[in-house]
Structures are given as structure tokens and as C-alpha cells.
Amino acid sequence: MTPFTTLDTFVFLVYFVAISAYGIWIYWRKKRSSGKATHDFFLAEGSLTWWAIGASLIASNISAEQFIGMSGSGYRIGMAIAVYELMAAVTLVIVAVFFMPVYLKNRIYTMPQFLEQRYGKAVATTMAVFWLGLYVVVNLTAILYLGALAISSIAGLDVMACMLFLALFATVITLGGMKVIGYTDVVQVLCLVIGGLVTTWIALDLVAALAGGQGALRGMSELYVRAGEHFDMVLSRDNPSYMDLPGLSTIIGGMLIVNLNYWGCNQYIIQRALGADLHTARKGILFAAFLKLLMPVIVVLPGIAAFVLHQQGALGGAMGSGTDVNPDRAYPVLLTLLPTGLKGVAFAALTAAVVASLAGKANSIATIYTFDIHKKLINPGVSETRMVWIGRVTVVVAMLLAVLIAPFM
User: Fold this and answer.
1) Can you list the positions of beta strands (E) in 271-325?
2) Radius of gyration (Cα) for the chain, nearest Å?
3) Given pLDDT bands bounded at 50, 70 and 90, which one contains residue 187?
4) Predicted confidence band at 277 (pLDDT cuts at 50, 70, 90)?
5) 384-405 vs 141-155: helix axis angle to the nearest 10?
6) Nearest by Cα to 174 from 378, 372, 362
7) Distance between terminal CA atoms of the chain?
8) 388 contacts 144 by C-beta, under 8 angstroms
9) DSSP state for residue 47 in the 8-state scheme
10) Which has fewest Cβ within 10 Å: 30, 240, 259, 309?
11) Residue 212: left (phi > 0), alpha (psi -120 to 50), or beta?
12) What's the number of CA atoms in the CB half-sphere (13 Å) around residue 288?
């Protein structure tokens, strides 16, 4: 295992400076543009291109849960867990074709606003309060804590220090508004994809070395030979993990409903497309569906590779032994095996995933509170400039609460 070196730190700092500088440039360029302050800050109305929308959707969705949890499921279950990603791609097509015309025709900016039009103010307010609690207490804290835990295990830093860094980094990006989030997410996704593919390549190369070969293609072939059952996409009833993915009826039926809710009715996700015209929004969402198809390669294959490497003793005791094996260690363990310099790339990719998710979640919290709570219930006559200020304060408060709550979750 290679330690985190000065070169790795330099690579990560290059990523950090590049994201920060790009975000500042976008922010100052945005300030010269015209338009309603609230729609510019919360939705980047008319400012995001289709590729920025698609990249931002994926950046908000992918975080430490996918890198750690889905790789762990790849280790334990196999490629069948990728059905979540494949279903997401299908669902995004449905959202682009059927959901977006309704939202944009009715000028929907928040999901509680949509509920108010359909069911009334009481339902909208109830769901706004519910979503705020869910986003802050569950989602924001989980992303922050799991991300800090993963980064801490790679870089050897204190978990609380990692949490504070991630929170501060994400807050600075979020305070610039949705346009800054959207365009910095493009760079974040680029880091995520490149770093993820590099990790997959190295993992497959290590598998190939078990048979005296080298290269990702040889490793893929060897992976199928040594763990062919891990490539079953539908699990049999006698599989120990059958209850995690119990058959086609649940996958196509129940999972489709959950996916439609997540990708089509979730403020945190759909907000990126609500400020665009229909043509741009649809292209962006379809681009996100394409990017989703890469996720099994980036997060599931490394987990299967870790399974084979552990079975052959190539990971030593890093995964644990006997009944103490923890599948969720798969991705962090693989990252420790990366050569000097590449570890910095993978570290940047993981950080990019966490920061992008935090920024997207914080922006959604600010949007729901400002539009659906403050403007409707506290001060209906609030000005545009004041709403932006309230949104920024909400971002800071939400992130502080997440930092305080996360260690106890």
C-alpha cells in the first residue's frame, strides 16, 4: 500500500484551486448578467447549458454513498446492484419526456409549489417542512459524515477536520448560486469520471496480475473467470443476497416508483432543470441518463475486483477476516493501492462527488425555505435581494447544523 505523498497532495491542491478559481470566475461573470435575482441565484434561469444540467444532476446524485456503499454491494452481491443505475437511466428518460413539460409549462420552481397547485397549501407546507428536516438531518449529515469518513481513511486525517473542510468548501460554492454550482459540477464530474475510471483500471490490472498478465481487458476476463456468479443481473432465490434484490417484479415495479419519485419529484435533483427551457432541460436530463450508464464501471466493478483480490489474499487483512470482513472497505482499500500521484486523482474524485452533493443539497434547502416557508408564511412582501440574502443565510445555518449533528447520527 502506497502512502499519501506530497505529489498526491499537490494533485489534490491543483483540483481545489482550479474549482475555486473557476467558481469565482463564474460568479463575477454572472453578476454582470440581468434577470430576477431570486431566479438567477436559486435556479440559474436561462444560464445553464444542457451539458451543465446533465453533469450537475449526476454530481448531485453521486457521493460517498455510491463510492463506498455500491462498491461494497459489488463486493458482496455483484453486478446485480447496478440495476439501480440502469433503472435510473430509464427513469431519467421518462422524466425528460413526460415530467418536464408539466413543470415548465406551469412555471414550477419547487416541489411544494407543485403540490400546492395539485392539492392545496396545507399539503405543500407540510411537505416543505418535512423535506427541510429530511434534507438537513438525514441527507446533508449522511453525505457529510460518510464523505469525511472515506476521505479520512485515505488521507489519514481527523474525521472532524475532514467534515469542516468539506462543509466549508461546499458552502463557498453554494453561496455563489445555482449557476456556480452547475458549472463547477461539470469540472467535478470530470474529476469523478476520470478518477473513478483510473481506480477501476488499476483494480482490473491487479486482478490480471493474479494470472501473470496485465491490463484492464485481461483483468476483466480474469474477473469473470474467478467470480462469474458476481455478474448475474437477476439473483436466484437461493442467493444469500436475494432479499436485497428480490426478482424482476420488484426491480421493475417497486424500484421504478421509487426512481420516479427520486429523479422526477425531488427538489434536490430536478432543480437543475427547472430554470431552463424545455429543449435544454430535456437534453440535459438525457445526458445525465448517459452518464448514469458509466456508474457501474466506476463504482461496481472495483467492488467485484476487491472481492477477487481478497479471495486470493492480495489485500492481506485490509478487508478483515472471517466473519469480520466489511464489504464497505472495498473502495477505500483499493484507493490505498493506487500509485503515487494517481491516489491524488482518486482523492480529488471522491472529494468532488461529496462537495457537489453537499452544494446541491444545500441549495435545495435554501430554495425550499426561501420560497415555500419564508415568502409564503413569514414575509410575503420580501424583496428579491432580501430573498437571496435569506437563501445564503439558510445555506450557512443548514451546513452548521449538519456539522453539529453528523457525529451523533
Assistant:
1) none
2) 21
3) confident
4) very high
5) 60
6) 362
7) 31
8) no
9) T
10) 240
11) left
12) 36
Rounded to whole angstroms, the Cα distance separating 87 from 273 reads: 20
- CA 224 vs CA 198, 214, 232: distances in Å: 20, 15, 11
What is the rounded CA–CA span in Å between residue 365 and residue 135?
Answer: 7
Check pLDDT > 90 for residue 282: yes
Q: Which three cell numbers stand for residue 374?
A: 419564508
**Cβ neighbourhood burial of 59 (10 Å; 0-12, 13-18, 19+):** buried
Least confident among 27-31, 33-37, 182-186, 352-356: 33-37
Whole-number Cα distances in Å, 108 to 90, 114, 262: 23, 6, 17
The DSSP result for 331-384, as a single string, is HHHHHHTSPTTHHHHHHHHHHHHHHHHHHHHHHHHHHHIIIIIIIIII-TT--H
- For 123, the enclosing helix (H) or strand (E) is helix 121-133
Contact 30, 366 (CB under 8 A): no
The Cα–Cα gap between 224 and 204 comes to: 11
Contacts of 138 (CB under 8 A, 6+ apart): none
Q: How far apart are CA 298 and CA 189, in angstroms?
A: 12
| Residue written as grid cell 474525521 | 159
CA distance linking residue 365 with residue 401, whole number of Å: 12
Q: What pLDDT shows up at residue 2?
A: 59
In one-letter notation, the amino acid at residue 335 is L
Q: Which of 348, 279, 357 is closest to 57 using CA atoms? A: 357
Q: CA nearest 88: which of 242, 260, 228, 225?
A: 260
Residues 293 and 65 sit within 8 Å (Cβ to Cβ): no
Length of the chain: 409
CA distance 69 to 67: 6
- Residue 37 grid coordinates: 435575482
192 vs 186: CA distance, rounded Å: 10
Cell numbers linked to 137: 438531518
Check whether 35 has a pLDDT greater than 60.
no
